[in-house]
Design goal:
Blueprint (H helix, E strand, L loop, with lengths): L7 E6 L1 H11 L5 E6 L6 H10 L5 H10 L7 H8 L13 H13 L2 H12 L4 E4 L6 E6 L4 E3 L1 H5 L9 E7 L6 H9 L2 E4 L4 H9 L4 H7 L3 E5 L14 H10 L9 E5 L5 H8 L10 H5 L4 E5 L12 H13 L16
Parallel strand pairs: 1-2, 1-7, 2-3, 7-8, 8-9, 9-10
Antiparallel strand pairs: 4-5, 4-6
Helix pairs in contact: 1-3, 1-14, 5-6, 8-10
Length: about 350
């Protein structure tokens, strides 16, 4: 086991949720690792994945940007990685960072090597690790018996819009990237979320070796619950439903030590806008959560702005307070792991 004076914190997820958590935590003296889902199949990532046969770079790119220094000398590089073309034959819609990671993968011969090299170029604080190097597709079985193939088709429902998700799985079966397993086993705290439940968070838990690594770890396992529900994924879900689903996919020894809930009010004008997209605030049913997780932490975590997002600084401060506490007793859920 590596020796370090800094507490090791592993953030599991992908997309804007991981970006927020990492952006806040990098300001603390911690050893940070992002373990990132590799099932994205939409937008620029999906096109590059189809054309080059590589793993999707989008979520990795966001984590690399989140962990890059905020100082002025690196701002141009951050802006460059975030830049998205809005014209040009073959370039329109592509992120420069995605193209850069694709080129690096071609040069280095592997997505893991490309990510490491991009991290070195950006001078990131910590490390970004793909959860798997298996090129797998995310699939969903719906309550009506139909199936959806591809993360993008689950994320933005094009079929079966009125049927709820029964369970999700990967095809082919994916196997954990060994450095990601090591990071989870050595962590002092593992943070899952926030993020789209079935398309950003659970895909990590579907990778063989990840639930087992979390079970072996002595880390405090923290779930950050989403602020809003999402049409086609979590409509009508309360906080306890999110917790229950995460536990469901954590294998035969599922446990979460903490769930973090927002208790700040939402601006009415933003709620009206989100309601047009059938997105509503997640109800904090604290007592039901306590039946699944020993510690429920409530805090005002809403960021000011035109979107309903967690505040990076407030969320990081809450996670650091949890990391300082004594290890909580593990609570094992009885819900069965879904069949593939």
């Amino acid at each position: 086991m590596r020796i370090s004076d800094k507490p090791k914190i592993v953030v599991v997820g992908g997309g804007t949720g991981s970006f927020t958590v990492l952006s806040g935590l990098k300001r603390y003296p911690v050893d940070l690792t992002a373990v990132v889902a590799m099932t994205d199949s939409g937008g620029s990532s999906g096109v590059l994945r189809d054309e080059f046969g590589h793993l999707p770079p989008g979520d990795v790119r966001q984590c690399l940007i989140a962990l890059s220094p905020d100082e002025r000398p690196t701002q141009t590089l951050r802006d460059l990685f975030s830049y998205r073309f809005d014209k040009g034959a073959g370039l329109d819609g592509h992120s420069f960072g995605n193209l850069f990671l694709t080129a690096l993968t071609e040069i280095t011969g592997g997505a893991d090597k490309a990510i490491a090299e991009a991290g070195r170029i950006l001078g990131i604080v910590g490390q970004v690790l793909p959860v798997t190097l298996t090129n797998a597709q995310l699939c969903a079985r719906l309550e009506d018996g139909s199936e959806i193939v591809g993360e993008a088709n689950i994320d933005v429902r094009k079929a079966g819009a009125t049927s709820s998700i029964d369970y999700v799985y990967l095809t082919p079966q994916a196997f954990a990237h060994p450095p990601a397993v090591q990071a989870l086993e050595e962590a002092a705290a593992i943070v899952i979320g926030p993020g789209d439940l079935y398309t950003s968070l659970i895909p990590n838990l579907l990778v063989e070796g990840v639930p087992e690594a979390i079970a072996r770890s002595r880390a405090k396992v923290v779930f950050v619950c989403n602020l809003m529900t999402k049409r086609g994924e979590s409509e009508g879900y309360r906080a306890s439903d999110f917790v229950g689903e995460v536990l469901r996919y954590m294998g035969p020894r599922p446990h979460l030590d903490y769930v973090v809930l927002n208790n700040a009010g939402f601006p009415t004008r933003l709620l009206r806008r989100y309601a047009l997209q059938h997105a509503h605030p997640v109800e904090s049913d604290v007592e039901a959560c306590r039946q699944l997780v020993r510690q429920v932490v409530e805090a005002p975590l809403l960021a000011a702005g035109t979107l309903l997002r967690h505040d990076a600084a407030k969320l990081a401060a809450t996670i650091m307070e949890i990391a300082k506490k004594r290890r909580a007793a593990r609570v094992y859920a009885s819900k069965a792991t879904p069949a593939p």
